[in-house]
Amino acid sequence: MRVLITGGSGFVGQRLCEKLLAQGHSVQVVSRHPDRVREKLPQACDIRDSALGFVDSPPEAIVNLAGESIAGKRWSEGQKNRLVESRVKTTHQLVTLCEQLITSGQPVPKVMVSGSAMGYYGDQGKRMVTEKTVPHDEFAHRLCARWETAAEPVKALGVRLAILRTGLVLDAGGGTLEKMLPPFKLGLGGRFGSGEQYMPWVHRDDLVAAIILLLEDDELSGIFNGSAPHPVTNAEFVKTLARKLHRPAIFPVPAFVLKAGLGEMSRLLLTGADMRPARLEEAGFKFQYPTLDKALGAILKR
């Protein structure tokens, strides 16, 4: 099938493009800078600067991953607006694409897998979090809620909608580990604050496999947590990473230092959720990397 991907040049999107092409699917990618991202993606990808550019080649499925990095810049009010708009604007464009396909008498995509994140739940302390957990109201929740709401109109257009709330994505060459590895390799790593906050995580290959399952299984719709079944606290994460690297992790970063340096954005590091992939497991999804020890072992061997 033809799969349209927004955010296709990102850390998850690149691997998803590779996997879909390997399975014989056609891949369409939306990027504001097509020429710039061509070198990052397989040659077979059809890359255009707007989702509306694919009206003449209607996708049969959509994966919506686009959005500015939530940890890229300090959260000024202007940056908060940019984080929201980068997600909502792209999602609205996908809804408009579906509307235009209907107007022109063409079939709409069968399914849209739309991104969200663990931030939807906000700070949940030590309680176990499933797709049914009531969120804690804070900026990360409001950001994700608006992103999810922007995708809802496709359901009225006949598109099956699955929303994937992802944890921290782990793999070599990007994601969470890209910033963590350098200090840890030097023996300068340590926990953030108390270290008691949970860090739901997922190996990139498992996340891509979950996206493909949601694309292919016509019975799956609604909210899904995209994280491994065994989340860990920050202290456990740090200990496991240091052990795999054969380095100490004895330099904790106090909470007040993070708050002073990052402001409100420090909540990304100092709060968390014990998020579990209840609905994916109910659907029979099998994680290749269910534990952090196994995931880091595979990643760091590379």
TrEMBL record:
SUPFAM superfamilies hit by this protein: NAD(P)-binding Rossmann-fold domains
Gene3D superfamilies (UniProt xref): NAD(P)-binding Rossmann-like Domain (3.40.50.720)
Domain DUF1731 span(s) in chain numbering: 253-299
Domain NAD-dependent epimerase/dehydratase: 3-219
Superkingdom of origin organism: Bacteria
InterPro entries, sorted: DUF1731 (IPR013549), Epimerase_deHydtase (IPR001509), NAD(P)-bd_dom_sf (IPR036291), SDR39U1 (IPR010099)
Pfam family, one: Epimerase
Family named by the database record: Belongs to the NAD(P)-dependent epimerase/dehydratase family. SDR39U1 subfamily.
Name of this protein: TIGR01777 family protein
Naturally occurring in which organism (per UniProt): Vreelandella populi
